[in-house]
Amino acid sequence: MEQILENLYKQHYGDDCVSTVKLQGSGSNRHYYRLTGPAGSVIGVVGPSVDENKTFIYLAKHFKEKGLPVPEVYLVNEEYTHYIQEDLGSVALFDAIKDGREKGGEYTSDHIELLKRTIAKLPSMQIVGAEGLDWDKCYPLPSMGRASIQFDLNYFKYDFLKFTGVEFHEFKLEMDFHALADDLLADAENTFLYRDFQARNVMLKDGEDPMFIDFQGGRRGPIYYDVASFLWQASAHYSSALREYLIQIYLSEFRKFKDVDEKKFYKNLNLWVLFRLLQVLGAYGFRGLFERKKHFIDSIAPALQNLENLLDTNDFPYPYLISVLRQVIALESFDLGDGTRIQLREPKPLTKSKPYASKFDNKGPLKVRVFSFSFWKGIPADESGNGGGYVFDVRCTHNPGRYAEYKHQTGLDKPVKDFLEKDGEITVYLRSVYKLADNHVERYIKRGFTSLMFCFGCTGGQHRSVYAAQHLAEHISKKYGVEVELVHREQGITQHFEPHQVKKTEEILQMNARQLPQGLSTIDL
Fold first, then answer.
1. How far is C-alpha 495 from the chain's CA centre?
2. At 176, phi and psi to the nearest 5?
3. Calculated CA dihedral for residues 463, 441, 450, 491, nearest 10 degrees
4. How many CB atoms lie within 10 A of CB 36?
5. Are 427 and 520 in contact, with CB atoms under 8 Å apart?
6. Which of 135, 297, 349, 407 could bridge to 142 as Cys pair (CB 3.0-4.6 Å)?
7. What is the tens place of the pLDDT at every residue in 403-420?
8. Is 52 helix (H, G, I), strand (E, B) or coil?
9. pLDDT of residue 357
């Protein structure tokens, strides 16, 4: 087989290949080689499935003509069993972010930049890639339909769920599977579904430019599947904040092609995340519980954690399915029936309840710290030892950062403040925050607690979070006279409000009965 590839090399370049090195195999049955000669290097591919090879070659040519980031196929033999393509190097995104993944999701700014650049290219693959594409040439199916969905759901049922020993009513579960399939297929568009969009299939040409490979399983289908595959990969340990940041990058690029209703997008995305997690558990069940491959067994626990997080933050209209999944998530381990026990998580230690007491009681005086920050750079750490306080997400409010005139300003600049106050969303938001903060500050003063923390996060930590943090800090300082430290983390700004006219406990008790004024101006307050 190597000789055929070397002949293709010579036919393409006119020079002999001087080195042929077999590359480490992937999960497929294709074989890859790096062929090097005076004209340069190429990747040689030997694939036993002619239909699959024809699909990849057709898609690669189609995408290349559209200017999309895929390797060029140079030459193919007559039998379509061997071909040579552009060499994209040896660094996959999966390898480039290895350190962050192995540290449980502690990704550096360089890692995040690579993830950002990768997901920013996905919309063009999905939309531009679909233009003029002959779906009948996709392999093995032209589109993502009910048969594919039901197959994967049954994959989960028979190759994972039955292994766990959780009892379930097969008919009731099947009814919820049908309902889920109906919802998944309700928003089908004429877009390209990559199907295997993951970090292993992204090559970093020249160390930084993301290029896509292994798209031969693609077909017509919904955009949400690829986003779910990329961001909810079990072993990646992406934080919810990082996922949200990358989703916003994706949507920003998607809007260059089509309008998008974010509420509808998130609703559909969550359905596909649920489906994708069930599909993944089915694969882990087969490769791990049936074939007993340790890597896949070890991947079950993080996949279940992803599933638990999803169910805790969403209400899905499939009551029986969700009840079964909750039983699976609750398992600490299960027996495969031959004496092999699969441990899913460490047993939680039993603790005895103790009378309520706090080491912070009656210490005083109270110091309040207020932060603005960017979610994708992480929530500010609490270094007080107290652990008390709040994290507010102000991304639900209108973002000045979407407009060119405010991009180089912050929530401290008058044009941005005017924009936010005229729009009004953030002022309504802060009224509720003020009520919550007042109750907490008053209670902490009364109890003699020493530290309280309020954090406001938005996408970049520049506009909305800065505005909100500044107003709350000024409000607490003026109303209660306690010491306040204000940190606009992403702007490198720290402001200190000295304690003054600290209210006595009796005054605080009287304040509890008062109603917060409706305005937000610290002058009015």
1. 33
2. -70, -35
3. 10
4. 15
5. yes
6. 135
7. 999 999 999 999 999 999
8. helix
9. 40
Cβ–Cβ under 8 Å, residues 97 and 114: yes
Stated as kind and residue range, the H or E segment containing 367 is strand 367-374
Extended beta strands in 89-164, E state: none
Separation of alpha carbons 305 and 341, rounded Å: 19
pLDDT at 271: 97
Q: Cα–Cα distances in Å, from 332 out to 200, 290, 342, 462?
A: 30, 19, 9, 43
Instruction: List the helix and strand counts (H, then E) for the chain.
Output: 18, 16
| Amino acid at site 76 | V
Indicate the pairing of strand 367-374 with strand 483-488: parallel
Q: In Å, what is the CA distance from 469 to each residue of 272, 284, 371?
A: 35, 45, 6
End-to-end CA distance of the chain: 81
Write down the residue that tokens 């923390």 correspond to.
453
Q: What SS3 class is residue 37?
A: strand
**Can you tell me the distance from the alpha carbon of 456 to that of 467, in angstroms, rounded to the nearest whole number?**
9
pLDDT beneath 50: ranges in the chain = 348-360, 505-506, 508-509, 511-525
Distance CA 106, CA 97 (A): 10
Rounded Cα distance, 385 and 391, in Å? 17
Residue 418, Ramachandran bin (φ over 0: left; ψ between -120 and 50: alpha; else beta) = alpha
CB burial of residue 512 (10 Å; 0-12, 13-18, 19+)? exposed
Q: Say how far apart CA 493 and CA 462 lie, in whole Å.
A: 11
246, 250, 253, 256 alpha-carbon torsion, rounded to 10°? -150
| Number of residues assigned to the chain | 525
DSSP for 424-467 reads -HHHHHHHHHHHHHHHHHHHHHHHT--EEEEEEEESSSSSHHHH
Report pLDDT digits (tens) over 32-84. Answer: 999 999 999 999 999 999 999 999 999 999 999 999 999 999 999 999 999 99
Choose among 261, 234, 492, 248: nearest CA to 375: 248
Q: Which residues of 256-281 are buried (b: 16+ CB within 10 A; e: fewer)?
A: eeeeeeeeebeebbbbbbbbbbbbbb
